[in-house]
Amino acid sequence: MADTDTTDGAAPGGDEAAPKKSKLKLIIIGVVALALVGGGGGYFFLAKGKKKDEHAEAAPAAAKPLSFVEVPEIVVNLAGQPGERVQYLKAKLVLEVKDAPQVALITPAMPRITDMAQVYLRELRSSDLNGSIGMFRLKEELTRRVNAAIAPNHVNAVLFKEILIQ
After folding, report:
1. What is the pLDDT of residues 93-116, one digit of tens each?
2. pTM, two decimal places
3. What are φ and ψ of residue 107, in 5° steps?
């Protein structure tokens, strides 16, 4: 019976120490977790603000306005098989350049650009212009040829204002 009293007496003392240690561990874990969450949140907001500043600085540089040069309207007959009905292509093109000084450099070469476009467009068949892929190829090839015609100057793209096949 004495053994049970001693065991009973020791158990309550041990039980009191265990809850104090587990409460202390729980509080320490809570403080560490709170610090991590607070630090992570602070970093998130500070990093987010820094990224906004970087985008704000990049936006004005990218906001530089483009310039455009109109090419005179082009009307050509398309290549076809003998005996087929003759088809015509009417195109209004615009050249996209990166800044206004380029416009002054490209404008004197407009006869060369028009000639190059007419020669190339006369080689095409109406089947070459079918669908969006045909228009994309036409745009890419015209851009390549215009850049070759006006070298060392450069255009970003050839844009279509109007395309009509009749």
Report:
1. 999 999 888 999 999 999 999 999
2. 0.60
3. -55, -45
